[in-house]
Design a protein that fits this description.
heterodimer; A: 155 residues; alpha+beta; Aldehyde Oxidoreductase, domain 3; four-stranded mixed sheet; four-stranded antiparallel sheet; 8 strands; 37% helix; globular; B: 83 residues; Ubiquitin-like (UB roll); five-stranded mixed sheet
């Protein structure tokens, strides 16, 4: 079971997680990750998230396929929001169901590392003082996190 | 082909999308970036550091050495910052 969605509205993480395991008796592990908008110690009023609508879901599906090729996963749900999000708002959900915790944790982490560097979304920070909005810069540490999985891929 | 721009590439170019008809010697994504850079100040600013620019052809990531001959839609954008 694979669900990939890009949406403006909020999501119910608990309901999405429940849906992954509903009626199943083979799932032993369910890992759920939710990324939230932080206020950066009062320096951020809102995030504006731009995306490439035609590509975002396709790329997220490719990222999920890469995780499924690597571990025996029983279900994956990935939801990414776009639009203006206030501090405290949910941005992204990754939920992974598997037989054992090892693959559920690892797949959730890989999915997030890949989403951050591969999925076509861009964040812009709005400041509380109304100063010019700034595009959030990509971090080289995110590239390094994603590269770990590639380095570990079998030849 | 149709070109689409996102984030600060879109802002600097000053448009979301446009139709492009590059000459035959523009073969790769990298060639197209160089060709676009010469189209005006906004383009020059958007593509001033070509190595940071990411590209996608028909909604899949490509490297700068990818050929553009069969592309219907080519996208240019900064490194992604989702998640």
């Amino acid at each position: 079971m694979r669900k990939v969605r890009v949406q403006g509205e909020d999501f119910d993480a608990a309901a999405e997680a429940r849906a992954l395991v509903a009626g199943r008796v083979d799932v032993g592990a369910l890992a759920t990750f939710v990324g939230l908008c932080r206020d950066e110690g009062g320096r951020l009023a809102a995030l504006e998230i731009e995306h490439y609508p035609d590509m975002a879901e396709a790329e997220m599906a490719r990222v999920v396929a890469a995780a499924e090729a690597r571990w025996p996963l029983l279900g994956v749900t990935v939801i990414h929001r776009w639009g203006t999000l206030a501090p405290g708002a949910q941005i992204v959900l990754v939920a992974v169901a598997a037989a054992h915790r090892g693959e559920a944790f690892a797949a959730a982490e890989m999915l997030m590392d890949y989403l951050k560097t591969q999925a076509p979304f861009w964040k812009r920070a709005r400041r509380p003082d109304g100063s010019a909005e700034e595009w959030v810069e990509a971090k080289s540490s995110d590239d390094e996190q994603a590269a770990r999985w590639r380095a570990a891929d079998p030849p | 082909m149709r070109a689409v721009y996102f984030a600060w590439v879109r802002e600097r170019v000053g448009k979301n999308e446009e139709a492009l008809d590059p000459p035959a010697e523009v073969v790769t994504v990298g060639d197209l970036i160089a060709w676009l850079s010469a189209r005006g100040e906004g383009y020059a600013h958007a593509f001033e550091k070509p190595h940071v620019i990411r590209a996608a052809i028909d909604r899949a990531h490509v490297k700068h050495d990818a050929r553009i001959a069969d592309a219907r839609e080519i996208a240019f954008f900064p490194p992604m910052t989702g998640g």
